[in-house]
Design brief:
Elements (H helix, E strand, L loop, with lengths): L13 E4 L2 E13 L3 E12 H5 L3 H6 E2 L7 E13 L4 E15 L3 E5 L2 E5 L5 E14 L4 E3 L3 E3 L4 E5 L5 E4 L1 H12 L11 E5 L4 E4 L9 H10 L5 H17 L1
Parallel strand pairs: 4-8
Antiparallel strand pairs: 1-2, 2-5, 2-7, 3-5, 6-9, 6-12, 7-9, 8-9, 10-15, 11-14, 12-15, 13-14
Length: about 250
């Protein structure tokens, strides 16, 4: 039987279904641009960058310049429904802790949490106490280290050191041989992994399919300024060659 909701029957701070979450808004939330699909009540949505210029508290919550333009402040009273392309949406509660998450899968978080840019490109870290929402391609799988993960299926990690890169030994041998012959190493798609050690919890998606991350593109582009003109030219040629192979 089809269920019809109104402002009174919509869930409060709970899932509407596996793919949508209803925030009971009484103040402010940070919401990823494009995540809001509907709302009830008196709610304003303003960019975090605009807010940060007039409210030091908002600025103090974001220590990640490359992501600030991808977020809005939802302020007011009502119910805000957020979703992400039909992906699974789940809420998590962080209590005086920290959790690193793929930036593109973070949909919203309470202002009690602070967002920092992770040293791992494409990921952000939430610190403090509060609720946050994340999407995943399929149900989330929780695992403990020691563990190696496909980077594209990795959703995040909590209470454990940042991962290091691990490369398949056979691929490394082939790549080193190719380098000696002035050729590019060939990739199978599985040779690069993230290696987790220590204690903690790793969050995995049920699929490797990723959403394109515009902030990651901006980060990489900004770092190419460190290259010389010759190095930038070589990088450009390699990217063109890679695109032509696909």
């Amino acid at each position: 039987m089809m269920q019809t909701y109104d402002v009174h029957t919509l869930p409060s701070n709970d899932n509407v279904n596996a793919y949508a979450f209803s925030i009971e808004l009484a103040g402010r939330w940070f919401v990823s641009k494009g995540a809001m699909i509907a709302y009830y009540g008196n709610v304003n949505f303003d960019g975090v960058a605009a807010w940060a210029s007039r409210d030091g508290f908002i600025a103090s919550r974001f220590s990640s310049p490359i992501y600030i333009q991808d977020w809005v402040v939802a302020e007011g009273q009502g119910k805000v429904i957020v979703a992400d392309r039909g992906f699974d949406v789940q809420s998590f509660d962080l209590e005086a802790g920290n959790l690193t998450l793929r930036a593109n899968n973070l949909l919203g978080f309470e202002t009690g949490l602070e967002l920092k840019q992770s040293i791992v490109p494409g990921f952000v870290t939430l610190i403090g106490t509060g609720k946050f929402l994340a999407s995943s391609n399929g149900p989330v799988i929780f695992v403990e280290p020691p563990f190696r993960a496909d980077p594209e299926a990795l959703l995040g990690w909590a209470d454990c050191p940042s991962p290091s890169h691990h490369y398949d030994a056979q691929w490394m041998s082939a790549s080193l041989g190719a380098m000696l012959q002035g050729m590019f190493g060939r990739e199978s798609g599985e040779e690069r992994q993230f290696d987790f050690t220590g204690e903690g919890t790793i969050l995995m998606q049920s699929s490797e399919t990723l959403r394109e991350d515009p902030a990651l593109m901006r980060l990489i582009e900004s770092q190419t300024s460190l290259l010389s003109t010759q190095q930038a030219g070589i990088l450009g040629q390699r990217l063109v060659a890679r695109a032509q192979q696909q």
